Amino acid sequence: AHAHAHAHAHAQKPSQMCGLESGGLWYAADESYKKDFEDDPNLLKKIEADFQKPWGDRRIELVVIGIKLNQKEIEKILDECLLTPEEMKLGPKGWGKFEDPFPEFEDDDDEDNDDEEGNVT
Q1: ω into residue 41 within 30 of 0, thus cis?
Q2: Domain range holding 75?
Q3: Does residue 95 have a pLDDT over 70?
Q4: Cβ distance 24 to 7 under 8 Å?
Q5: Region class of 91: left (phi > 0), else alpha (psi between -120 and 50), else beta
Q6: What is the largest CA-CA distance in the chain?
Q7: Residue 116 domain flag
Q8: CB atoms < 10 A from the CB of 74, how many?
Q9: 63 phi and psi, to 5 degrees?
């Protein structure tokens, strides 16, 4: 399966530049995250309140801001990017056979590439 099935990304396009960088692992990708919240069980409950079976916290949150945008056209274009019901049935192992258009993310601990965040024009 693609490594991206277990990690999330932050993308931003404020102008002519577009950046994509690792956001780390989804909590649901590694149960050890619970240890990080042993001192704050209320925060753990809040995080897990957003979990949905079978994917946990994996989701897409997208905000599009602009003037005179064609909402219907934007929704149509984005809907065309979604997996079909048949593709969803393949599951993570099947999705791992799809071409992955995204670059491999650098580890968050890798300070040698701090200026290289995958910016493209």
Answers
A1: no
A2: 3-102
A3: yes
A4: yes
A5: left
A6: 47
A7: no
A8: 13
A9: -125, 125
Q: Is the pLDDT of residue 3 over 60?
A: no
Tell me, yes or no, whether 119 lies in a domain: no
Rounded Cα distance between 81 and 2, Å, is 17
Would 121 be classed as within a structural domain? no
The answer to whether position 114 is within a domain reads no
108 pLDDT band (50/70/90 cuts)?
low
> In this model, does residue 118 exceed pLDDT 70?
no
pLDDT of res. 66: 85
Instruction: Give me the amino acid identity at 74.
Output: I
Helix, strand or coil for residue 94?
helix
Domains in the chain, number:
1
Reading the block at residue 101, the tokens are 């258009």
Residue 46, amino acid: K
Which pTM value belongs to this model?
0.63
Q: Which tokens is 103 given?
A: 């670059």
CA–CA separation, 71 and 38 (whole Å): 43
pLDDT tens digits for 27-73?
999 889 999 999 999 999 999 999 999 899 998 888 888 899 999 99
